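BUG-396 | component: ligand-complex export | severity: low

The export step for PXG jobs runs without errors, but we want the raw record kept on the ticket for reference. Input record follows.
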Amino acid sequence: MNTQEHIGLAEAHSAHNYHPLPVVLAKGEGIWVWDVEGKKYLDMLSSYSALNQGHRHPRIVKALVEQTERLCLTSRAFHHDTFGPFSRAITEATGYDRVLPMNTGAEAVETAIKAARKWGYDRKGITRDKAEIVVCANNFHGRTSTIVGFSTEELYRKGFGPFTPGFRIIPYNDLDALEAAMTANTVGFLVEPIQGEAGINVPDAGYLKEARWICNQHNVLLMADEIQTGMGRTGKLFCFEYDGVRPDVLILGKALGGGLYPVSAILAGDDVMSVFVPGNHGSTFGGNPVACAVGKAAIEVTLEEKLVENSFEQGAYLRTALEKMGSPHVKQVRGRGLLIGVEVKGRARPFCEKLAELGLLCKETHETVIRFAPPLVITREEVDWALERIGEVLKG
Ligand code: PXG
């Protein structure tokens, strides 16, 4: 089947909850993908940062294949022999006491919400059902009905109510608003270190550091959603490191699955994680043998192949080069590491469509921002290859 036939088939038989570029992919390797016509593209989206290690990283594929040939699923009713090694690898890599694995990002966010609420009741003595969590305007934390309930994006919410109460929305990057939102019932502050879906919004330097201080003053958990910014994407293993702070709850997803399997998790200290007791939270597939094998390999590849350092280096190079282009279409270039947003004066989609024709895949976010987020295995020469095409599309 050709491109049009594939698209036609999908349109005929699936829900229309996406508006993809008209490209049908059939193969991927490293930073490259090929469509059904055999055309090759550089993947500068990386499945919204889930492909930090690149497509089909051999070591991660090997871990998955070996595991699937041995044991795939046990449920958490029994122990399995990949769970402990994964748990140790991720807690050692992050410095947290404990991990609670789930599958998708939204599930991990839901887990963090439940942890914070229960911590508030058990440890702070908050009156039953009164716990409040502070979140930011323009957040993106996933698509469950609780999570879209505290979104400020009408498209995400409209028609999906009634919503879960207990959330207070403040402007992003506004510390006075955070201080003012704190009440005796506040249990957590849920925040993205960079707002990816809102258009790669980078807060002021020190924002998380001050937020940490405010949370400490009010005995409130700082919960960082690093589903998109984590695992080296922003040039540090975690974006919160730029502010020299440590969140109480770290939320991971996307690239924890090594670009080939859904793996998410929350990490926290004993004090928070001990609110969970047998029976009050869980998931059939969370922490399954394949997920654990893949998650462990994903972390090892990220650290051992120095993807974090490469993200920092290539990110700085790409960003500087984009700024130096001095394109008349560009309003601002922003981001950290290899999470870069180019805000253009008009709509971003036509630029993305032209780039796709030239063999470079990327996606607009929030109408006016082109997101450049290639796999972290990209080399300097490959960044130059991308820059040539971007230069051609952004020139006057
Ligand atoms: N938090 C952040 C910061 C995210 O970027 C999620 C949570 C939710 O993860 P899951 O695995 O539940 O999708 C995200 C996801 C899409 C899409 O197609 C998702 C994201 C970005 C762009 C598109 O649903 N981010």
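Assignee comment: Attached the raw record above. The domain at 58-304 is CATH 3.40.640.10 (Aspartate Aminotransferase; domain 2).
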